[in-house]
Model the fold of this input.
Amino acid sequence: MTRKPRQSTAGRVPAEREPGSTTPLARGVTLLDLSDGTAFRPPSDVAEVDDAVRIRLELPGVPQHSVQVWVRGDCIEVSGEKAMDFPRGESSFLCLERIFGKFRRVFEVVGAVNLAKVSARMRDGILVITIPKIDERRGRERRVPVTGE
Done:
């Protein structure tokens, strides 16, 4: 008797979420669900701290060199690939819960943040993207010189 491997739904978009939908995560940060058929969807957390917005993604087993972070307009895009770590066809699985493949997550960031100074660091399978805030009060008040004719 041959059994099909059981696959976990961890890290996948819930069924009620439509591709192309948006989900507000924190003040000024929205997760854009730009599902493009990728199988692996790493879970993420978005937190607002005093001086920044931080996005954390769980990427266990994903090497740093295969992760790309892009700033595109008002969006932070994270993409990469978690490759299979065993030769195809060499094993007959009784259970396969781990997910492999390409992934892509897009976060729209609006508000008082400095997208020119975004930084990313990966350690122990956790990618941390830091988006510094801009002091909204800075630049709100300034003297306007009055010139003559």
Summary: Residues 65 and 135 are 34 Å apart (CA to CA). The chain has no helices and nine strands. Residues 3-19 have pLDDT under 50 and may be disordered.
